[in-house]
């Protein structure tokens, strides 16, 4: 079966994990192109107007940007829009916005919220991403104090909760919306489930994932979504 498109991505990008989860859930054949994080302005097919990942280039060579619009486009073209379809569009839209606002911002505190976590994360990122020889070492050892001292530390201080408490609260708030079902979408995951799953899954390559694993309802939902992926 021919590839449906190309996903230009970073392995460790939470927004890329969202699109990857959808593609794997729908079992859509595609090519993954891992970009150099230091060269996105020059190498992405959407650059220079848009230099963020993910970027989806479909089989007609049309370029699509921004993770949630990409997910909606893929669902529409390859799945008849079934995952985005809802009997309660107000609820769906509200919680997709909630997921993109709150879960996306919570990934940095848990991965970079302490100096030790930041060092482990940036070292891991430098091994997983397609850096050049020198930029890999520069990111691993210069990136962690920036991510911790400038970004994550401010977010943790502003929120007032530990990263673990923040994630536990978010997972509780999200799973409480299921109304007794396994998923936000009911008996099967919908696009909101897959977006939230992508953010949680983006933490899974790191030791900090253990801070989430003891949230029972959250992990029951996460493993149930994971079981629907064709990987």
Description of the structure:
- This protein has 231 residues and is an alpha+beta fold.
- It folds into two domains: 5-79, Glutaredoxin; 89-226, Up-down Bundle (Glutathione S-transferase Yfyf (Class Pi), Chain A, domain 2).
- The protein has helices at residues 14-25, 40-43, 67-79, 89-112, 115-128, 133-159, 163-175, 191-201, 210-213, 216-226, and strands spanning 5-9, 31-34, 55-58, 63-65.
- A four-stranded mixed β-sheet has the order 2-1-3-4, with helices on one face.
- Helix 1 (14-25) links the parallel strand 1 and strand 2.
- The longest helix has 27 residues, at 133-159.
- The protein starts with a strand and ends in a 5-residue tail after the last helix.
What attributes does this structure have?
231 residues, alpha+beta, Glutaredoxin, Glutathione S-transferase Yfyf (Class Pi), Chain A, domain 2, 2 domains, 4-stranded mixed sheet, 4 strands, 58% helix, globular
Walk across the major sheet and give the strand order.
Answer: 2-1-3-4
Just name the CATH architecture of the largest domain: Up-down Bundle
Share of helix, binned: 55-70%
Rg for CA atoms: 18 Å
* Major β-sheet annotation: 4 strands, mixed
Mean of residue pLDDT? 88
CATH topology of the largest domain: Glutathione S-transferase Yfyf (Class Pi), Chain A, domain 2
Number of helices: 10
Please indicate the percent range of residues in DSSP E strands (runs of 2 or more): 5-15%
Specify the overall morphology: globular
């Amino acid at each position: 079966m021919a590839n449906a498109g190309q996903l230009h991505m970073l392995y460790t990008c939470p927004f890329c994990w969202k699109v990857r989860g959808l593609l794997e859930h729908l079992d859509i054949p595609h090519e993954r192109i891992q970009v150099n994080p230091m060269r996105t302005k020059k190498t992405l097919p959407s650059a220079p107007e848009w230099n963020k990942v993910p970027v989806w280039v479909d089989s007609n060579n049309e370029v699509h940007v921004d993770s949630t619009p990409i997910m909606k486009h893929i669902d529409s073209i390859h799945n008849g829009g079934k995952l985005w379809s809802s009997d309660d569009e107000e609820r769906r839209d509200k919680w997709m916005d909630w997921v993109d606002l709150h879960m996306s911002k919570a990934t940095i505190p848990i991965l970079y919220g302490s100096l030790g976590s930041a060092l482990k994360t940036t070292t891991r990122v430098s091994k997983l991403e397609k850096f050049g020889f020198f930029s890999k070492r520069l990111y691993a050892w210069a990136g962690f104090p920036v991510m911790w001292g400038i970004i994550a530390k401010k977010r943790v201080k502003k929120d007032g909760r530990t990263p673990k408490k923040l994630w536990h609260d978010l997972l509780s708030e999200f799973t409480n919306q299921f109304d007794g079902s396994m998923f936000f979408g009911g008996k099967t995951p919908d696009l909101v489930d897959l977006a939230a799953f992508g953010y949680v899954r983006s933490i899974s390559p790191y030791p900090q994932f253990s801070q989430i694993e003891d949230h029972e309802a959250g992990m029951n939902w996460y493993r149930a979504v994971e079981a629907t992926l064709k990987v």
